Amino acid sequence: MGYRYHPTTLEVFPEWNTDWIVVADMGGDPYIYHDGRVLYAMHGTGQWKPESLFPDLITMCAAFAVIGTVVTDAGLDLTDDQSYIRPKHYGRARDLLADTLGDDFLALRSLETAGWG
User: Fold this and answer.
1) Which of 31, 52, 57, 100 has CB atoms 3.0–4.6 Å from 24's, for a disulfide?
2) Beta strand pairing status for 37-40 and 29-34?
3) Which residues form the domain of 74?
4) Three-class SS state of 50
């Protein structure tokens, strides 16, 4: 519901489709379930224009599971002293995602929307 209304005026955003369901978010950027697909939108752009990201919820969950596995396996070694994800962990996540999703571009886009790139 928080994406549907202006936070100050509480007016409904006219471009927000009432059939959209936010199933996850990253830093306030929603992953939106609609018509069997998962869309992704950046907040703060002035209007909601989500783009198709995952073909279905299962694919989204698989991508998040891969990223979670890499994070768990890396432990405290995940990031460097400036809190950047270490290249070896980024590369592992990218490779595992590409294998799991069967699509290099979707693997990179998944990492990007998760804040990894």
Assistant:
1) 31
2) antiparallel
3) 57-113
4) coil
Q: Are residues 25 and 65 in the same domain?
A: no
Kindly state whether residues 64 and 101 are assigned to the same domain: yes
Cα distance between residue 43 and residue 38, in whole Å: 16
| Residue 39 β-bridge partners | 32, 52
> Distance (Å, rounded) from C-alpha 32 to C-alpha 29?
9
Sign of CA dihedral 72, 63, 105, 3: negative
Of the candidates 43, 11, 18, 13, the one whose C-alpha atom is nearest the C-alpha of residue 30 is 43
What pLDDT, on the 0 to 100 scale, is given for residue 25? Answer: 93
Residue with tokens 């703060």: 44
d(CA 2, CA 58): 24
Could you read off the pLDDT of 24-59 as tens digits, one per residue?
999 889 999 999 999 999 888 777 889 999 999 999
Q: Say what the pTM is.
A: 0.88
